[in-house]
Amino acid sequence: xxxxxxxxxxxxxxxxxxxxxxxxxxxxxxxxxxxxxxxxxxxxxxxxxxxxxxxxxxxxxxxxxxxxxxxxxxxxxxxxxxxxxxxxxxxxxxxxxxxxxxxxxxxxxxxxxxxxxxxxxxxxxxxxxxxxxxxxxxxxxxxxxxxxxxxxxxxxxxxxxxxxxxxxxxxxxxxxxxxxxxxxxxxxxxxxxxxxxxxxxxxxxxxxxxxxxxxxxxxxxxxxxxxxxxxxxxxxxxxxxxxxxxxxxxxxxxxxxxxxxxxxxxxxxxxxxxxxxxxxxxxxxxxxxxxxxxxxxxxxxxxxxxxxxxxxxxxxxxxxxxxxxxxxxxxxxxxxxxxxxxxxxxxxxxxxxxxxxxxxxxxxxxxxxxxxxxxxxxxxxxxxxxxxxxxxxxxxxxxxxxxxxxxxxxxxxxxxxxxxxxxxxxxxxxxxx
Length: 433
Ligand SMILES: *Cc1c(COP(=O)(O)O)cnc(C)c1O
Hints:
Strand content: 5-15%
Distance between the termini: 35 Å
Mean pLDDT: 95
Bound molecules: pyridoxal-5'-phosphate
Largest sheet: 6 strands, mixed
Structural class: alpha/beta
Radius of gyration: 21 Å
């Protein structure tokens, strides 16, 4: 399969090239040249298939031309060592729990899949070690670090702003050891990102070591998220509730919902989609006006969705050839203030006994407001509420239990490399590795 850039000014890339480069040379996002339709028989039987088997079928459609079945099967099985259940919240609203992975957030699947795919390519070529640089304000670092943990041939440097990530998040990437190095930067998130960008542009450094990024726009991180939506349909079908299914995705950079839209293009019978935003309402405004106007990001309690210029908008625009009518006939929007997010968490717990995290709360609220009679709704619960323990407990007035997996991170010993925010010292450090 070849991949083209959404800006259409860069040469087509192979899967391998697209994964290693991340962003195309013209700063566009890679898109697969074709999107395969899956046969009706697959959808007829899907309700009886496991998450892993469903994911393999979907992965074959994306990557089957480039990776032999046996290898792809191994990559999928290794990525999905956990389930992705739907939990009833009301009679017609279900929570798709995407938080059963190693760091209890949905980004685990993409990060793990990308790690395994990169490892496959490295082994094929017998190539020297690859170094992944990733800047994080919290959740991306934990998902990438855990996804790549113990994968031989790859070393990961996680750059994070000192004192500006939550304790739990910091533990999730500073206590791992092995092939993961946490770099604690004396600065803010933008400084971390600037260091990573400068590193990619530095010729001397790139001659010294092979560098790549694990950014969320990478095709290997974003496409596997489609697995979730086929699984959601399957689980709802098994319950006899898959007709007129509405899927609601709490969205920030719009990678997750774009993967869902790819699923729809492959024939997945979802009636319509809702993109739920926090106060960062750029996409919401696009739906209303047809104009895409990026804004500086606003800080909210659903902070993984604090994105003022969602990268994957370019993919959605490309998928529907910029046709605003096609986009609005399939996708509606929602935007909520912190106060409205708190209200949703509070009401959902009081009415249904279900504990939402602030991101999932946007999804739940949008479905409660927009679901029509005769429809069933599934929203993504994108992170375990314990990851936002203080916020959640203050709202619902009850304790949120920390799962053992999360507690285990808290016991580890923090190891990090302290770094100033100027590029010379970061480069000097990397040159010694
Ligand atoms: C990353 C993230 C999101 C947003 O997903 P996008 O693919 O960026 O739209 C939502 N919730 C949580 C918890 C996240 O970590």
